[in-house]
Write a structure and sequence with these properties.
- By secondary structure, the protein is α/β, with parallel strands linked by helices.
- It has two domains: 126 residues, Aspartate Aminotransferase, domain 1; 236 residues, Aspartate Aminotransferase, domain 2 (3-Layer(aba) Sandwich).
- 41% of the residues lie in helices and 17% in strands.
- The protein has 14 helices and 14 strands.
- It has a seven-stranded mixed beta sheet, sandwiched between helices. The protein has a four-stranded antiparallel beta sheet with strand order 10-11-14-13. A three-stranded mixed beta sheet has the order 1-2-12, covered by helices on one side.
- β4, α6 and β5 form a beta-alpha-beta unit.
- It is globular.
């Protein structure tokens, strides 16, 4: 393939409004950031609780670095599994009420490792059509048979599960869909898994820390969380969003975790995360449990935003989470709207295909507990000004 062909493909993406760019932050992550040398009010981060620059996490990281140094130096199975990793795994398992947990360096690696370790050529995967790209890639790498069901369509899933199959069955879903902000029907999914003898892998990257009592995640979002206390559930959550640090974990039955240790290639063949990061996450978990005001503030801001954006030519999609997508439709219009906000000192990313379906380009507004009512009012005012 010649360089001219590559450039032609890039030019086509640009014409279609699909070319991606990186922007350089020169500040800590937060609601006020410095990007490419300019200050912005940011609604672009997954730092939902405002912990990415929290003094207690910074202090825990510094203490951890003094004790353990910087790099882990090896994979967990060679010589890179530190006491800080072990303590965090036990704390996470207890926090989400699972027998055991296993740390990964990212949510992407966690999903790749779990799916590839648990199912193979003779098995079947059933996946929601709006699942995250990491889950889609994990399905392909597993070499299992893949069937995708319509988004949150339990009738369609039941039809697929009812087809005769002698191998393992794994149902995969996001808990909070990252580009729409809506929730998976977890009780209904689990009931079907019980009926058809399947595992349920739940990716709670955007629910952990914000949903449920003390931020324990989507499995605890409903009043009777015991309904989802099933050994069939394999739970994944990330530590770089609401937790404010980095990494991810899988929590499940001990035999599942033991299987991942033996078979998950993205765990076995990856240098462990710096142990000091585990110290910072432990500090984050403590804040989850004692600072309920952060989640209360989030829901207040969600209500304010949704009420304030009534009457715009672009509709807010239904979402009860800090992810508030403003559906624009046209790729170039979405990009232009995002750029117009930037000229007003407000950072909101435009999300386009293939991240979202064709014709559904949007602004993805992300709220944080660190935002104030005045911050949200500023965004509301700017969007109404641009609409007229």
């Amino acid at each position: 393939m010649t360089f001219e062909v590559l450039q032609s493909e890039l030019d086509t993406r640009a014409t279609q409004g699909l070319l991606r760019y990186r922007h350089e932050l020169q500040s800590a992550q937060g609601t006020r950031v410095k990007v490419n040398g300019k200050p912005f009010l940011s609604f672009s981060s997954n730092d939902y609780l405002g912990l990415a620059d929290h003094p207690q996490l910074l202090a825990a990281l510094q203490t951890g670095t003094q004790q353990y140094g910087l790099g882990a130096g090896a994979s967990h199975l060679v010589s890179g599994h530190f006491s800080a990793h072990e303590e965090l795994e036990q704390a996470l398992a207890e926090f989400v009420d699972k027998p055991a947990a296993l740390l990964f360096s990212s949510g992407y690696l966690a999903n790749l490792g779990a799916v590839q370790a648990l199912v193979g050529r003779r098995d079947k995967i059933f996946a929601d059509k709006l699942n995250h790209a990491s889950l889609n890639d994990a399905m392909l790498l597993s070499r299992a048979q893949v069937q995708r069901f319509r988004h949150n369509d339990m009738v369609h899933l039941a039809q697929l599960l009812a087809q005769p199959h002698s191998g393992r069955k794994l149902v995969i879903t996001d808990a909070v869909f990252s580009m729409d902000g809506d929730l998976a029907l977890l009780p209904e999914l689990l009931a079907l898994c019980e009926q058809y003898d399947a595992w349920l892998l739940v990716d709670d990257a955007h629910g952990f820390g914000i949903l449920g009592e003390q931020g324990r995640g989507s499995l605890f979002h409903r009043r009777d969380s015991s309904d989802l206390a099933s050994p069939r559930i394999i739970y994944m959550a990330t530590l770089g969003k609401a937790a404010g640090v980095s990494g991810a974990f899988i929590a499940a039955e001990q035999v599942v975790i033991d299987t991942l240790v033996q078979n998950a290639r993205s765990y076995i063949y990856t240098t462990a995360s710096p142990p000091a990061l585990s110290c910072a996450v432990l500090a984050s978990l403590r804040l989850f449990q004692k600072e309920e005001w952060r989640r209360t503030q989030l829901w207040k801001l969600v209500t304010q935003l949704r009420a304030g954006l009534n009457g715009l030519p672009w509709a807010l999609m239904h979402s009860d989470t800090p992810i508030q997508p403003l559906l624009v439709g046209n790729n170039n219009v979405a990009v232009a709207l995002s750029e117009a906000l930037r000229t007003r000192g407000i950072w909101v990313p435009a999300i386009r295909p293939p991240t979202v379906p064709q014709g559904t380009a949007r602004l993805r507004i992300s709220l944080s507990a660190a935002h104030s009512e005045q911050n949200v009012a500023q965004l509301i005012s700017a969007l109404h000004e641009l609409a007229h």
